[in-house]
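Example S7 (structure tokens).
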């Protein structure tokens, strides 16, 4: 997979280098492996977990060759990912059979929120679904405009009350629009302001409340968008947002632009939320469904 080339060459390349000239996995190799995982943004807690598991295997089997290490590591990572990524989607299935299905998209500015909404809308549209995008990020002038441009590119409906409008009101009315216009899905953008944690929490819960007031059982999905190139910042944001609201799925963007795909492993493990999509480019079709096995294979092939 071209989009993941960088991730691939890096993790695998580094490990191969680290074990060159060694035949068995010893403490030195494990130390090397630990720093490779940390420098690949797997995160400290998850790295320690992986190293512990491999150490146990090494202790049990006494003699583990460096050749077996890759296999072992691959198994451990797949297992870790499997704990929270219990379903591998086969296509862009809506998160609920409800009609309209309401998806709230959260995340800080610049992570690729608007782009991900556009790409997702394109997929649903291609399935013949009727889609509306709701411009709930009313704090940035560009946000409303950009979402509108995406709706035109996709050829789907767009609902906005302009800039400065109350985001909760936009969310409420987008849902009403979806009901009245017989839409299959409404994807609602939100402002990702992280001034203070309390602020974020209040804003998100207000939007959530107004969405469920507009339609019982909604939102059906809260999708958090994170930029994979930001490493530790992505972890911080995941913490803020999962603390502030019930995040049901993750989209990890810009995996084409980073050698550090490890962020996917750590974030899914630490925040116990499945990764649903990965962004591998700026184009409208460059959103992929996250497949844990394919992802891990791409790290090692
Ligand atoms: P927002 O502020 O979170 O809405 O971010 P945007 O959707 O405007 O995206 C910010 C920048 O990241 C834009 O230049 C996008 O084209 C770019 N971008 C978004 N997703 C991806 C991706 O998966 N790969 C790459 N290479 N760029 C992306």
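Recovered sequence:
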């Amino acid at each position: 997979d071209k989009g993941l080339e960088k991730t691939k060459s890096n993790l695998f390349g580094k490990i191969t280098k680290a074990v060159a000239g060694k035949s068995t996995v010893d403490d030195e190799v494990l130390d090397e492996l630990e720093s490779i995982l940390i420098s690949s943004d797997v995160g400290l807690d998850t790295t320690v977990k992986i190293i512990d598991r491999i150490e146990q295997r090494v202790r049990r089997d006494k003699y583990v060759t460096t050749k077996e290490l890759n296999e072992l590591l691959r198994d451990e990572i797949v297992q870790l990912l499997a704990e929270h990524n219990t379903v591998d989607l086969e296509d862009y299935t809506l998160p609920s059979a409800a009609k309209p299905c309401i998806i709230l998209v959260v995340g800080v500015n610049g992570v690729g929120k608007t782009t991900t909404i556009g790409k997702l809308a394109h997929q649903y549209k291609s399935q013949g679904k009727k889609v509306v995008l709701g411009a709930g990020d009313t704090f940035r002038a560009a946000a409303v405009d950009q979402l509108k441009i995406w709706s035109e590119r996709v050829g789907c409906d767009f609902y906005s009350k302009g800039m400065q409008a109350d985001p909760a009101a936009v969310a409420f009315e987008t849902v009403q629009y979806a009901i009245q216009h017989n839409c299959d899905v409404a994807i609602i953008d939100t402002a990702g302001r992280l001034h203070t944690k309390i602020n974020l929490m209040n804003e998100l819960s207000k939007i959530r409340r107004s969405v469920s007031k507009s339609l019982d059982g909604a939102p059906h999905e809260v999708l958090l968008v994170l930029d994979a190139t930001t490493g530790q910042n992505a972890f911080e944001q995941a913490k803020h947002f999962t603390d502030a609201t019930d995040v049901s799925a993750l989209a990890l963007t810009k995996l084409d632009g980073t050698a550090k795909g490890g962020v996917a492993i750590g974030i899914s493990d630490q925040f116990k939320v499945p990764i649903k999509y990965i962004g591998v480019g700026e184009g409208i079709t460059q959103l992929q469904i996250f497949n844990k096995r394919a992802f891990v294979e791409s790290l090692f092939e």
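Notes on this example. Residues 107, 109-115, 146, 253-254, 256-257, 279-282, 286 surround guanosine-5'-diphosphate (CB under 6 Å).
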